[in-house]
Amino acid sequence: MATLRKALDGIYFIDYRVNGRRVRKYVGRSKHLAELALKDLEVKLIKNELGFETKKDSDLSKLFDEYASYSATHHSPATQKRFKGIVENFKGFIRANLKALKISQLTHKDFSDFQGYRKRQGVAHKTINMEIACLRTIFGLAVKWGYAKFNPTDGVVFLKEEVNTAPEFLSKAQCKKVLDAADPFMYCVLFTLLNTGMRKAELENLEWNDIDFEGKKIKIRYKTDWSPKTAERLIPINKELLGLLKEHKKKAAVSGCSWVFHKDGQKIEPNYLRKKFMQLTKQCGFPEMTRVHSLRHTFASHLVMGGVDLPTVGKLLGHSDIETTMIYSHLADEHVDKAVEKISF
User: What does pTM read for this prediction?
Assistant: First the structure.
């Protein structure tokens, strides 16, 4: 199991293997101490206390089931669904390439191979990086829960992400056109998104007690069954939107529903707004605009083109990193060029 050897320089070392991996442990020049170290090591190997033991080695299926329960408690339904998809993708990779059943059977290289596997499927680097980050979280929890001794994803390098392209946004003429074509419900939804830059999920989870009509603020906050993508934040309400929301509240009062936007007292289904938006953009002659998220880009883009600085735009959008807001920086170039004309001596 373990052998005591002496190097040419007179230093004793113990040569042993654990799970097929060769290990050398140097123990000094004293033969007596080296022999004691050998006996101690043999005991530890027997007791599986070297960090490669099977005692802390769970079945992958058990880990994924435990993580599903953890996610149900700590994540929103949308996040649970996304993470479940990532786990299923990784399970598919394991079935096709590894046949691994235990956490200890996974290596650093396996996760690098998973990156290549997903890349060959045509998945974007950004998505693959998100999947690796999720898996890193899962196996990190496995260590905390005592299911594994180490995290096999440690050291896996994220793929270089494609350079962000300029975000698509609607012109003011397109905004007017789509608003004019919308029914009263969608008009209120679209007008709110265009004037706040809220994410679709933020609007879907917006409740009346999130709106401070006196202070003219909307609070994006944590709910028992939903969490904002980043942190909580306050969004100021302009005069036009304030009037619209007040009228909407009067009409919605009869339903007694806590959500600002709902369908017959029920929460808006995840794909409902996208389908309605696609119908409107197709009707208005710009069917390439398919994502409700483009309204968030529209809000930010027109602010930047109106001369609002990027840090302020980032704060309104709830960006945790100014780098995210920099995708709108090209729109500010004209205003930067004009800025020097405002100074004179």
Answer: 0.59
